[in-house]
Amino acid sequence: MLEHIFLLMAFFRGVSSLSKLRSRIVQQSSLNGSVRWLQMQSASDVDLHLQLKELIPEQQERLKKLKSVHGKVHLGNITVDMVIGGMRGMTGLLWETSLLDPDEGIRFRGLSIPECQKVLPAATPGGEPLPEGLLWLLLTGKVPSKEQVDALSKDLRSRAKIPDHVYKAITSLPETAHPMTQFATGVMALQVQSEFQKAYEKGISKSRFWEPTYEDALNLIAQVSVVASFIYRRMYKNGEIIPADDGLDYGANFSHMLGFDSPKMHELMRLYVTIHTDHEGGNVSAHTAHLVGSALSDPYLSFAAALNGLAGPLHGLANQEVLLWIKSVVEQCGENITKEQLKDYVWTTLNSGKVVPGFGHGVLRKTDPRYTCQREFALKHLPDDPLFQLVSKLYEVVPPILTELGKVKNPWPNVDAHSGVLLNHFGLTEARYYTVLFGVSRSMGICSQLIWDRALGFPLERPKSVTMEWLENFCKKAAS
Ligand SMILES: CC(C)(COP(=O)(O)OP(=O)(O)OC[C@H]1O[C@@H](n2cnc3c(N)ncnc32)[C@H](O)[C@@H]1OP(=O)(O)O)[C@@H](O)C(=O)NCCC(=O)NCCS
């Protein structure tokens, strides 16, 4: 009798997992057709390293074919404007983990942000995606199961040990040093334990470069959130360090170590890390890591270099600048500022030769979907927050003014226009720290691509540069 009951239970379990599997396949097949590798995985398939080991030969073959069959196909013309203008619009990099469309925004391995929110495992039903899930997606091109994400969370937690000398290196800097300087110093100190460097010194074959790169990449991703939290607590909370909680996922644990334990802040951090991970390869931080890595510098060296680019105000530091700018608006005009007053404030900023932080983009030509999903989070969790309402007003006021300037190619808000007010609402008010949060998140995209750079044997990056004289002569000859 008992045996029959067990058999019956096993049958129903089987039917229920089969229908779950069917619904996931249906859900996934309705997504963008460009998701080449999207497929259901068995729950036992939780070894990320093994997954990559299987995928790499396939992708090496693909690249080899691309090169031999299409190597001489032209991708477009290079103009003098492009050379002078920071290589805008010049296709010159291979970056597998994500692709940016000027109108639609970012797609991670073919999936838009709303699609990721739909299919990636969450901590709570219908909640924000777990960043580890996005990391799995970036690395493999496959949507992971919850079991796979949990296994990756566990793996990352086991790698999050920080040698003492890292803390010493950070505390040797004045407490007033910019948090990004402290962060880059911490990452450089972590480099001492690079597996890639050790393996290279021992003479590892280039066919195996990706393996120590993988170890460094996962160690680094695991460690940066601990180092970043240490810097925050050192600077703003009297050095009272909060140890990691082994029961928490990456985003929630990061929030916990910073000192923020409300479930909403945990959700915000999961969303924050997820959307900041990657933005194709040409942006300053991603490109820097790719370039430095192409010299076979290990992931720590490459990522530290990327952080120094992220620390620039036209790139990652813009999130700090936005909140400081918004706070200066409130200081001068109060929270209930009218649209007319706001317009005047924007013109004052522009007339003093500054940019309006949080607006514009090198590639995007529409509102950044990373802005939109943060706005949706705010509408759900903090609709009455006065700074959120100010951000909403800016959305109405700034684009027409930037359009009126006549030279701004994208008058719409970017990711940084929104992130600060959300963090500020939940108590993370120290704007100077914000770019560190961006940096922690970016480690996932940058490190994922670095593994593929080594797996696919990408060469040393070495574009040709020319002088103004060379350009003048070239153009004279072309005209004659
Ligand atoms: C992101 C950014 C650096 C892109 O630069 P870009 O690709 O050169 O942008 P554009 O081609 O539209 O720039 C053309 C002109 O418009 C100006 N412009 C662009 N965005 C502007 C803004 N938000 N406020 C004022 N002026 C802006 C540029 O400074 C440039 O002026 P110039 O010709 O006098 O040098 C730029 O939009 C910017 O500075 N934004 C504010 C900072 C920011 O939010 N950065 C985060 C980006 S995610």
TrEMBL record:
<dbReference type="GO" id="GO:0006099">
    <property type="term" value="P:tricarboxylic acid cycle"/>
</dbReference>
<feature type="signal peptide">
    <location>
        <begin position="1"/>
        <end position="17"/>
    </location>
</feature>
<dbReference type="InterPro" id="IPR016143">
    <property type="entry name" value="Citrate_synth-like_sm_a-sub"/>
</dbReference>
<comment type="similarity">
    <text>Belongs to the citrate synthase family.</text>
</comment>
<dbReference type="GO" id="GO:0006101">
    <property type="term" value="P:citrate metabolic process"/>
</dbReference>
<feature type="active site">
    <location>
        <position position="416"/>
    </location>
</feature>
<dbReference type="InterPro" id="IPR002020">
    <property type="entry name" value="Citrate_synthase"/>
</dbReference>
<dbReference type="GO" id="GO:0005759">
    <property type="term" value="C:mitochondrial matrix"/>
</dbReference>
<feature type="active site">
    <location>
        <position position="315"/>
    </location>
</feature>
<protein>
    <recommendedName>
        <fullName>Citrate synthase</fullName>
    </recommendedName>
</protein>
<dbReference type="Pfam" id="PF00285">
    <property type="entry name" value="Citrate_synt"/>
</dbReference>
<dbReference type="InterPro" id="IPR016142">
    <property type="entry name" value="Citrate_synth-like_lrg_a-sub"/>
</dbReference>
<feature type="active site">
    <location>
        <position position="361"/>
    </location>
</feature>
<dbReference type="InterPro" id="IPR010109">
    <property type="entry name" value="Citrate_synthase_euk"/>
</dbReference>
<dbReference type="GO" id="GO:0046912">
    <property type="term" value="F:acyltransferase activity, acyl groups converted into alkyl on transfer"/>
</dbReference>
<dbReference type="InterPro" id="IPR019810">
    <property type="entry name" value="Citrate_synthase_AS"/>
</dbReference>
<dbReference type="InterPro" id="IPR036969">
    <property type="entry name" value="Citrate_synthase_sf"/>
</dbReference>
<keyword id="KW-0732">Signal</keyword>
<keyword id="KW-0808">Transferase</keyword>
<dbReference type="GO" id="GO:0005975">
    <property type="term" value="P:carbohydrate metabolic process"/>
</dbReference>
